[in-house]
Amino acid sequence: MGILVAIEGLDGAGKNTIVGRIREQAQHRGITLETVAFPSYGRHVTADIAAEALHGRHGDLSQSAYAMAMLFALDRREAADDLRAALARNDLLLCDRYVASNAAYSAARLHQGPDGEVVDWVGDLEFGRFGLPLPAHQLLLGVPPEIAIDRAAGRAAADATRAKDAYERDADLQSRVWRAYLDLARVQWMSPWTVADGDDAVEQVLALVA
């Protein structure tokens, strides 16, 4: 049985890049792994509806923090069996965003701390009611908002298919999300956390399965 490691961070923090580097190093070291990214755009209808709402569709759906959080949670619920199967056949399962992303964004939207009602609700819903596997470790990429926002803007400018959504366009929200992530890491929400970037981030994850 393998371990699940969640890679968390702001939009533009470089999560996909770090996941790719970990995958490459793991293969060199004979570590079996699979990767999955959330939200599951193009695979699960709940994720696609959430994306559409964040780009202005579906009326006032995106105005409700709880409604959006439920869509993202249901997206992961659809993947729960696949996650457990991947853990059974690999040493490592990497998730590019996981449940903590829902907790951080929801807390930031509602101006709550890590002990707030919405963070408890997300944990109870996803790990409790939906039975998602707990991560063995959660890695927060240490890229602050001012850098991540610039990267996300550059990415959107270079790729017409990557237009920024309502969350990504809101710099104040991104700053609050960053603080929410740091708070979750500080209280070690649901499992051990570390904050790192670059080579340190890669090595910290691989050391868990060495």
Automatic annotation (TrEMBL):
Keyword hit for Kinase: yes
InterPro entries tied to this protein: P-loop_NTPase, Thymidylate_kin-like_dom, Thymidylate_kin_CS, Thymidylate_kinase
The enzyme's E.C. designation: 2.7.4.9
Gene3D superfamilies in alphabetical order: P-loop containing nucleotide triphosphate hydrolases (3.40.50.300)
A GO CC term assigned to this protein in UniProt: cytosol
Catalytic activity: dTMP + ATP = dTDP + ADP
Domain Thymidylate kinase-like residue range list: 7-188
Domain of life: Bacteria
Pfam families, sorted: Thymidylate_kin
Biological process, per Gene Ontology: dTDP biosynthetic process; dTTP biosynthetic process; dUDP biosynthetic process
HAMAP family: Thymidylate_kinase
Protein family (similarity comment): Belongs to the thymidylate kinase family.
Role: Phosphorylation of dTMP to form dTDP in both de novo and salvage pathways of dTTP synthesis.
Designated name of the protein: Thymidylate kinase
Gene source species: Gordonia hirsuta DSM 44140 = NBRC 16056
